[in-house]
């Protein structure tokens, strides 16, 4: 299992557009990819899951990957989130 804590830098947080792009990126990997925000746990491969709990700008989240490509998935997803600009 690989995990990293990070802060959402996007001025809109994780909105519909960025959630859709994040789901597309997460589905490129075989690993399970989860995002934790406070007490909420979201599956990064499910748009409904990502939209169920709001993640605003400057929110602290934890990205957790588990599977055969977990290190690559974690690196890719955290870089993708860091580069979200709207």
TrEMBL record:
Keywords: Cytoplasm, Phosphotransferase system. InterPro entries: HPr, HPr-like, HPr-like_sf. It is found in: Cytoplasm. GO terms for cellular component: cytoplasm. GO terms for biological process: phosphoenolpyruvate-dependent sugar phosphotransferase system. The keyword Cytoplasm applies. Its main location: cytoplasm. It comes from the Bacteria. Residues 1-86 form the HPr domain. PANTHER family: PHOSPHOCARRIER PROTEIN HPR, PHOSPHOCARRIER PROTEIN NPR. This is HPr family phosphocarrier protein. It comes from Hominiventricola filiformis.
